[in-house]
Amino acid sequence: ASPSSTMGRFTVWDYVVFAAMLVISAVIGIYYAFAGGGQKTSRDFLMGGRSMSALPVALSLTASFMSAVTVLGTPAEIYRYGAIFCIFAITYGLVVLCSAEIFLPVFYKLGITSTYEYLELRFNKYLRLCGTVLFIIQTASKPQSHSAILTLYTGIVIYAPALALNQVTGFDLWGAVVATGVVCTFYCTLGGLKAVVWTDVFQVGIMIAGFSSVIIRAVVVQEGIGRIVNDSYYGGRLNFWDFNPNPLQRHTFWTIVIGGTFTWTSIYGINQSQVQRYIACKSRFHAKMSLYINLLGLWAILACAVLCGLALYSIYKDCDPWMAKQVSALDQLMPYLVLDILHDFPGMPGLFVASAYSGTLSTVSSSINALAAVTVEDLIRPYFRSLSEKKLSWISMGMSLFYGGVCIGMAALASLLGALLQAALSIFGMVGGPLLGLFALGILCSFANGIGAFVGLVTGFVISLWVGIGSQIYPPLPERTKPLYLSTAGCNISSENLMTTENPLTTVFNTPTAERPALADNWYSLSYLYFSTLGTLITVVVGIIISLLTGGLKQNTDRKFLLTKEDFLSNFSRSKSETKVEVLDSKRFTVAAEGTDNPAFSHIEMDVASDKNKVNGLHI
């Protein structure tokens, strides 16, 4: 309750803990640059040589899912809107099921590096180009956490936490941004996917440690977890069940389960940075296991974030630091709490900041690696066939370096154009829905053709943009978002710098109701979680109709691009040989009379292209 001048600031020990986290991450990168003969081919660099096992990949998937936004934003979300956020536990389960049983089998048996290769194999090269371009735009603006409705851009992912931590702890802002950016680029460029995965494993450990220290200390301060739960219950924070079917309500059981599933499947099922990692597993069994183990990680992190949020409420229920002007934004509540309760423990605030930054590092590193992979596989390799593997692996490293630099530049841009960028990006974040629809068409509908898929994608994209831009211009009213009551009754501060205890959001969005068009309160107020759902469904429906009208039933689609019964049933046969067969073993294909001098460009892909010319006549 004291003004932040008397709160703890960062000490030497905190900086030491933070620096240690960066140094260890960098060392892992150096190790993988030279271990096992280094990165000989671009496939080693981008795919870890397809030899990863399930556990590290699972932890890595968990880590990049969790950015600093999760560490700082989710507890604040629960503090503000209550624990209905827990329903995401169900969503994560559904997302992992869909990814592992629908998308993974197809991508794995085709052995592709870039998920967008699939679009060319299944439809044509123009759709592959569309997918690639949309992906690069989207990753440059990836929705890494749902608690930020704003889709966050790699630059904002670096900048936002730095800003929040800086304002509360006095932690050096640009020092942190540049240090994280440089270390990240360094280990991505040297060590490739293996380094990304193993640094992620280390960073998950740090994140859990940071969360745990806060939870344990908060329980001690509040004399037992019972009191925290009790306070939350009486403060209306345990609002788990809200079965209101209204799609305009921001978070209800249905928006989270249905909308959340579509939103997150577009990230887990088809997003290059996630797919790239589970395809890098050594067998399909390991790939599926990595997704299911990662589910446990997601649940653990969700539980930690929820507990932190409830602890926040329990400690500040009588004096909300946000309305008492102690912090200027909700995502500063966590750092504020940490300094409040852990300032007597040297190095502990540093551990928390390190955990927030681990989130940033893992998110950014997976983005850099994925962007490098997509650029090399979709924009360079198809057009420069003569490049040797050694050259391609150097180019991959160069791309990692380049994108790392771009990310730091973006962070600088984010500091100048924060609000503008966020609006633009939350609109680009809607790209995920239509893309998911495009892949669903390819994998689930044998009669979908290139024309249908293209028209569907465009329609879905246009409608998503329309809703997205609308919701940016006319933000939904507070009765749609339902913020819970916060109190400043117990604060011992002079009353004039207090806001009224009415919901502060109403004071911000004071658009006179007369100006809001009829569309604003129904169509544009759609829960942000439904944006993806809308895009996906429209893409699929339009795609099916157009495909049927343009003779989609006449084409013969090769079975291996579709999800088949065998893919599903092979789950139950545990014979290792069968799961192993699927891995593209470059040794089997070295002597193929295809006339290409590039053994790592698997000849399966060549065969596919030639088969397709015979079959469907649509391969352009």
UniProtKB/TrEMBL annotation:
Primary localisation category: membrane
Keyword field: Cell membrane, Ion transport, Membrane, Sodium, Sodium transport, Transmembrane, Transmembrane helix, Transport
Any one GO molecular function term: organic acid:sodium symporter activity
InterPro entries named in the record: Na/Glc_symporter_sf (IPR038377), Na/solute_symporter (IPR001734), Sodium:Solute_Symporter_SSF (IPR051163)
GO biological process: propanoate transmembrane transport
Protein family membership: Belongs to the sodium:solute symporter (SSF) (TC 2.A.21) family.
NCBIfam families linked to this entry: sss
Protein name stated in the entry: Sodium-coupled monocarboxylate transporter 1
Species, as recorded: Eudyptula minor (Little blue penguin)
Lineage: Eukaryota, Metazoa, Chordata, Craniata, Vertebrata
